[in-house]
Amino acid sequence: KAGVTQTPRYLIKTRGQQVTLSCSPISGHRSVSWYQQTPGQGLQFLFEYFSETQRNKGNFPGRFSGRQFSNSRSEMNVSTLELGDSALYLCASTLGGSYNEQFFGPGTRLTVL
Amino acid sequence: GENVEQHPSTLSVQEGDSAVIKCTYSDSASNYFPWYKQELGKRPQLIIDIRSNVGEKKDQRIAVTLNKTAKHFSLHITETQPEDSAVYFCAASKGGGADGLTFGKGTHLIIQP
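Structure tokens for the assembled complex are given below, as produced in the milestone run.
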């Protein structure tokens, strides 16, 4: 079974631009979560989608948004990019119930100049 | 919201010795505590997890203990090997992880030959 995939793997943007990242979960997984990883703040939860609905949201500004499609693929969007948005963005998929392992993708490395 | 503190930030041990990483959490409603290992340039991978109705869980050289009263959980690695060198993250969640994971800041484990 193929693992979680994320595209693109690397991205360079300038301040003020917007960006869209994509995540394809493991086949059969219905939940996708997004995390931001930075050296200073570590791994921080952004939001989680299940069956096309956002179920949970972390403490990030409204510039960060996401969506999930009927095939469980998910996208996250960051508008009006700031230098501090430079990070590794990881998505993780799980079956969707409780106590199920979250499988992480390889991440998208976003650099904002 | 939940807050997870992790110590130490760096841990250096001799090959063959044991390593212990400790985490505390703030939300008494948290009921799921996974541990992830992240090697340099790779995605986080689950190594062991524990539910709040269990005090201890072991998998070969890895064990996790949970003290709900003190809101404290620990990772124990025995007979450490060079391949154990990595960053280890603890996490906590309510709803069995279905509502997103709150991570500690990570411990860089260095195994000295």
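Chain A has a mean pLDDT of 95. Chain A is about 0% helix and 55% strand. Further analysis is deferred to the final report.
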